[in-house]
Amino acid sequence: MRLEPRPNPSLARTLGFTALAIAGAVIFSSILVMLAGANPFNVFSLVIKGAAGTQFALLETLTRATPLIFTGLAVAVAFRARLWNIGAEAQLYIGAVMTVVLGTGAITIPSFGLIPIIMVAAMLAGALVLLGPAILKTRFGVDEVVTTLLLNFIVILFVSLLLEGPLKDPMGLGWPQSKRIIAEAKLPRIITGKRLHYGFVLAIVSAGIVWFIMKKTVLGYEMRAVGHNAEAARFAGIPVNRVIAKTALISGGLAALAGFSEVAGLKGNLTLDLSPGYGYTGIVVAMLAMLNPLGVVLAAIFVAGIFVGADAMSRSANVPSYIAQVMVASALLTMVTAMMLMRYRIRWK
Amino acid sequence: MDENAAGKAEEVLRLSGITKRFGKLTANNAISLTLRRGEVVALLGENGAGKTTLMNILFGHYTADEGDIEVFGERLAPGDPRAALNAGVGMVHQHFTLAEQMSVLDNIALGTQSIWRPFLDRRAARERISKLAADYGLAVDPDRQISDLSVGERQRVEILKALYRDARILILDEPTAVLTPMEVEALFNTLKKLVADGLSVIFISHKLHEVMAVCDRVVVLRSGTVAGARQIGETDTHDLAQLMVGSELPQDDVSPAIPGKVLFALEKASTKAEGGAGLDAITLELRAGEITGLAGISGNGQAALAAAIAGTLPLTSGSIRIHGETMSGWSPRKALANKLGRIPEDRHATGMIGDMSVAENVISEAYPTRRFSRFGIIDWNAAAAFAREIIADYDVKCPSENARVRLLSGGNMQKLILGRALDGDPDVILASQPTRGLDIGAVSYVHRKLIEARDRGAAILLISEDLDEIQSLSDRIVVMSEGRLSAPSLRGERSQRELGILMAGHGMDQGPAGDTIHAA
């Protein structure tokens, strides 16, 4: 068996293989569902209904997709330049910390001034969290997989310290949670009375901006060149270390926006369960999207839909909602396989 | 060797009618070859003549479209790399396949033990290795780690590895390319001992004098076919050269140079080691309208020199002068800004970005200029137009400017690099191994382009391990050895033998000082 590179994959082939990957994941999950003693058709229709069957379900899916778009973009940008940012979780929490530090009354000006200030501050903080590992990587060759991953634990423990100390809500009955942000710091809801907030719009806009940067700008070109072949990039005169640092700033900033949008748009305060692993799921989202910024939006909605749908399904079909994890994981595996098949042709002898 | 004995000796390997096509290209066309017990047969041919393809077929990496292989009278299963090993064929590749972090002993014994016996019988292995080493003059300490060994020692480990696996037929792919003359001599002694013990050797090379020195018979390949076969006693280097390149020796019709002023100079430049030796206080001047050829055995500082000029390896001391101006903080960007065009040694690793398109690759040096970007936005139309221009001017064979570079052949990649490096008529050109691995057509194309650039007044540094290439193109030749340079000589001033002596590191003492005198 041998792999031969294919010419540039066409759009049709890309879509075809993506469809095949989804089909493969569905078949694999079905087997597990049957092993759990349920009817896969029933389970899948419940998942779909739970994810998009009603207005409530659909809005819930989009709400859940919002932080995943941000973290997915963060990972996609970093991975494109071969900066293995496994620390989106940490950057998300730092973004959330900045949001409550500035949004709980430290500054009191109208929304149109306050929200941009908080956003910028959150992005800067997230960017700096990733800049450290990026500099360690370019200066001393320290593996950023290790540093960014471990920073997650450091940052989460740090947040825990803040929530037990300086940021603790005195009215919180002793719970480790921050004060609630003031009304001016809140992102408005898109539809009154529903949970979907303008963070979602911000996420879509961010995806468009990231797409434009990667596709059209000098910086995007440099990032792709460094990611594909750093040695050739350096030879051509591309300032590799500076490009990696810029990549880190963008990636960290995007991940921090996830934390900002969750606090300012949805939760209103900071607790330690703000993110059920959105930073890590961002890796899955980015890989499913083949690191394409616009694909990240679709992949995030897909993953969010499965989680939301599986929650609803498990309530009525008596199949544990863990099946959502299995579905997402198997979708990732089939997608990675499909990506390889898009780029290579298998020759049997 | 006694001619009668060689004539009667049994046939150990027979390739008959091997044909292999890659699309339109026929890499091997009905090649037949026999190897007898106790002889060394040279497989001679230029880069791209089909030597490597043929050996890859023998080793089952490729399957021949037509033809048969017999080893010791038995047909070898096609397309099975294990078959050749089991049949007693061992190969020493040009690029070694050793595990750097393991000992010599482990490297040799690796993979020879059944997995059901996980603990290597080290004593027996050590004894066997010592005996093989003593018998064939392959001295190497079995307990040293590969990463501590010199290139010559690594090659010995590779040969021992093959012998340890009971190879009776040994194939050496360009074994002398990386060796010093003394190591070459030791290798030849080993080969003589091996064939005296009844082994057979295929010696792949494009160096005529080596073939004459060590082989019994020679088979010459040219563009995929057997151009001729000779007993060594019945031929000479001139005859072989003609067979190798065709009926007529191409007259590299190089008009005399009209050297101008010094455009680029290194003064007492030193660097850290890079891909072999680092630079040791070398002084080098490149003049307008002149090709300076740099000869030397691989690993003697050529990589460091190329990287220092290209701007990827900083000088630890000394200075770089371009257009008479001393530069500080030399970098690829500075090199480009000062009209220095660079052709890197390794197209795949440093020259091109395989997973990006032709258009994306050709702008990789000039993208920050206003020609290709404004306000941080890349003008992809300009990039595509530039790519199409290079494709047309340099006759690059590729589907379109959007094709990924990985899909192009080495020669076409090199043309893209030439197009990128020579765009805007650079004043100084660094050409590092510009023809390595190219077929004859592409080689002469690259040569033509370099001479054209010279004739319009560029100062060119040609770094090559191929002494013939250096001698035919260069107006002035310097030899590099262990990071130092010899005094320059003009075209035809030193014989190949004299250059060889310099390459071996003798008579380098007049190095930098001599250079300065010439510069006056």
Can you offer a commentary on this structure?
Chain B: This is ABC transporter ATP-binding protein. Chain B: Belongs to the ABC transporter superfamily. Chain B: It comes from Pseudohoeflea suaedae. Chain B: It is a peripheral membrane protein. By secondary structure, chain A is mostly helical. Chain A has a domain at 66-300. Helices cover 72% and strands 2% of the residues of chain A. Chain A has 13 helices and 2 strands, in the order E-H-H-H-H-H-H-H-H-H-H-H-H-H-E. Chain A has helices at residues 11-35, 40-52, 55-80, 88-103, 111-140, 144-164, 199-216, 218-228, 230-236, 240-267, 278-288, 293-317, 323-343; strands at 2-5, 344-347. Chain A has a two-stranded antiparallel ribbon with strand order 1-2. The mean pLDDT of chain A is 91. Chain B has 520 residues and is an alpha/beta fold. Chain B folds into 4 domains: 1-88 and 168-249, Rossmann fold (3-Layer(aba) Sandwich), CATH 3.40.50.300; 97-164, no CATH class; 255-339 and 427-435 and 444-520, Rossmann fold, CATH 3.40.50.300; 349-424, no CATH class. Helix content of chain B is 34%, strand content 24%. In chain B, a hairpin with a 2-residue loop joins strand 9 (217-222) and strand 10 (225-231). In chain B, helix 15 runs parallel beside helix 16 (440-455). The longest helix of chain B has 16 residues, at 181-196. Chain B is globular. The A-B interface holds A 5, 7-8, 216-219, 221, 224-225, 228-229, 231-239, 349 and B 63, 79, 310-312, 331-333, 335-336, 342, 344, 349-357, 360, 364-365, 367-368, 373, 376-378, 380, 399, 402-404, 406-407.
Keyword list:
heterodimer, A: mainly alpha, two-stranded antiparallel ribbon, 2 strands, globular, B: about 525 residues, alpha/beta, Rossmann fold, 7-stranded mixed sheet, 6-stranded mixed sheet, 19 helices, about 35% helix, disordered C terminus
